[in-house]
Design a protein that fits this description.
Number of helices: 19
CATH topology of the largest domain: hpI Integrase, Chain A
Oligomer: single chain
Radius of gyration: 32 Å
CATH architecture of the largest domain: Orthogonal Bundle
Number of strands: 10
Strand order of the largest sheet: 5-6-7
Order of helices and strands: HEEEEHHHHHHHHHEEEHHHHHHHEEEHH
Shape: flat
Largest sheet: 3 strands, antiparallel
CATH class of the largest domain: Mainly Alpha
């Protein structure tokens, strides 16, 4: 910030405290407020209470006013969970390290804080960054666009938010699924609490809602449609969308559920009517008759129920949700359909599930030359005899590019010296009878170069959702298999001829 900027903006920030703010409600026809008149801001979200005690934070008066205005803005415009996961961590960090005493902070200190947060707490990093951007937009003294541009240049650790999807694409095995189905069917001798828990698990298994969505479900959200002619009954659940950002409006979408689950919910509603009065909640807290089950208790119940039938500790609603998404992808559902069913704001997570399907995994394995089924076939085909490098004139050596890498000294070409090959050298040589591979050629270099090129095409094809039909990927698949076959033939040749060599340099 230059001196002119400093003089213009050196006015103390004034926080116009409204006294209370409206928080997004998770239950229809229910108003949710946070009282901002005191130093303890407290709000409820999904039956769980969160609070910020400003007296516990070590800030000077100016920074405290700015931060309170920012948190108020976030509670009004974002999901309360965003404040919990991103904003509160950076509030605590600034206070703990006593950066808030000397606001405004020097440039080097601000940059140092962001660098540390990028390494120690990525959620707090993004929370602080959003705060800094918000302050710049309002031209608050102590915040500079120049500094923000430097913050924007900080290199963050590479991370894949959907890594678990790629590493564990199948989730529930057939045996585990049978255990779940058996558990869901055994309801005859259950107590009210056990029956409620069974319906909870069944709902997550079938639709994959988040605990916060389950918290929102009311008995009136179950729609029953009867066919007068056939006496058939159909059930629809109007499910609140958890990630459709809105401060006051609760967005619900219809979800078809099985008749079996629908009838179980019907029975639960009947049990509720006998136990509770004047409460429309579907899942109730037996220890607090007027209260809905909170999202934290819902998570705990699902984890415990799965654990009781042999699942690992802490496998709960998210685990079943991932399994549902992967099952949809395996059955050929599009990214748009998966995103719609799971309530995602974008198709990015759904594309991760599709990329992890067994069919796509096989295509990738083939494309990278790792599928052994084709190895023996490739050994019988394609190239000429293996020869020694020093027995061939350099004018006949094959040279070419693999991606951006120059490759030379891999073998000789049987075409006449003055003949130009109509194909791409290196890519096509390993599938050509005119090519004589060198026993000591740089075939591993070629393979690594082709792997990089194949991975590049895979990444591009996945984004375009056409990996299964991408001709470039299929071409590289065959070439890599052919290179593998040549490497194996060279090993055999060298073994038979007791030919020892030092790996040649790329020429």
């Amino acid at each position: 910030m230059n001196e002119n900027e400093d003089n213009i903006n050196r006015l103390h920030f004034i926080f116009n405290n409204p006294g209370q703010i409206r928080i997004r409600s998770r239950v229809e026809n229910t108003i949710n407020y946070c009282n901002t008149k005191t130093d303890i801001w407290k709000w409820n979200d999904g039956g769980d209470s969160t609070s910020i005690n400003w007296e516990n934070y070590n800030y000077n008066k100016e920074l405290k006013d700015i931060l309170q205005a920012y948190i108020l803005h976030r509670l009004e415009s974002k999901s309360p969970q965003t404040v919990i996961s991103c904003d509160i961590p950076f509030l605590k960090y600034i206070s703990k390290h006593e950066y808030g005493k000397d606001f405004p902070l020097p440039v080097n200190v601000v940059i140092a804080i962001f660098i540390r947060l990028s390494q120690e707490n990525i959620c707090a990093f993004f929370g602080f960054k959003m705060f800094y951007q918000w302050a710049i937009e309002r031209k608050i003294y102590g915040f500079s666009k120049k500094i923000y541009d430097e913050i924007d240049e900080i290199q963050l650790p590479k991370r894949n938010p959907y890594q678990r999807i790629y590493l564990n694409p199948t989730y529930i095995s057939v045996n585990e699924e049978n255990r779940i189905l058996k558990y869901l069917e055994n309801t005859d001798t259950l107590s009210y609490e056990q029956y409620r828990n069974n319906v909870l698990v069944h709902l997550v298994y079938e639709l994959g809602p988040r605990p916060i969505q389950i918290f929102s479900i009311s008995q009136s959200d179950i729609e029953i449609i009867k066919n007068d002619q056939s006496d058939e009954v159909f059930f629809t659940l109007w499910l609140a969308m958890a990630k459709k950002i809105s401060s006051t409006v609760l967005v619900k979408k219809p979800r078809k559920i099985s008749n079996y689950l629908g009838k179980k919910i019907q029975h639960l509603i009947q049990l509720n009517s006998k136990r509770y009065l004047n409460n429309d909640a579907l899942f109730r807290d037996i220890n607090h008759p007027e209260a809905r089950l909170s999202k934290s208790k819902i998570s705990f119940i699902i984890i415990n129920e799965l654990s009781s039938i042999g699942f690992d500790k802490w496998e709960g609603a998210t685990y079943l949700r991932h399994h549902l998404a992967q099952s949809l992808a395996n059955q050929g559902a599009s990214a748009e359909v998966i995103a719609e069913i799971l309530g995602h704001n974008s198709t990015l997570p759904a594309r991760a599930y599709i990329a992890a399907t067994p069919e796509i995994a096989i295509i990738k394995t083939k494309a990278l030359g790792k599928l052994k089924t084709y190895e023996n076939i490739m050994k019988m085909l394609l190239t000429g005899e293996i020869v020694k490098r020093n027995s061939i004139s350099k004018s006949q050596w094959v040279r070419g590019m693999v991606g951006s890498q120059y490759i030379g000294g891999i073998g000789s070409c049987g075409l006449p010296n003055n003949t130009s090959c109509p194909k791409n050298p290196v890519y096509s040589c390993y599938t050509c009878h005119k090519f004589q591979p060198f026993a000591d050629g740089n075939h591993e270099d070629v393979k690594q170069g082709l792997h990089k090129q194949a991975q590049y095409f895979i990444d591009i094809a996945e984004k375009a959702m056409d990996l299964e039909y991408n001709r470039a990927v299929l071409q590289l698949e065959k070439t890599i298999q052919a290179v593998d076959a040549v490497i194996e033939r060279c090993k055999t040749y060298n073994s038979i001829n007791n030919y020892e060599f030092t790996k040649g340099k790329t020429l």
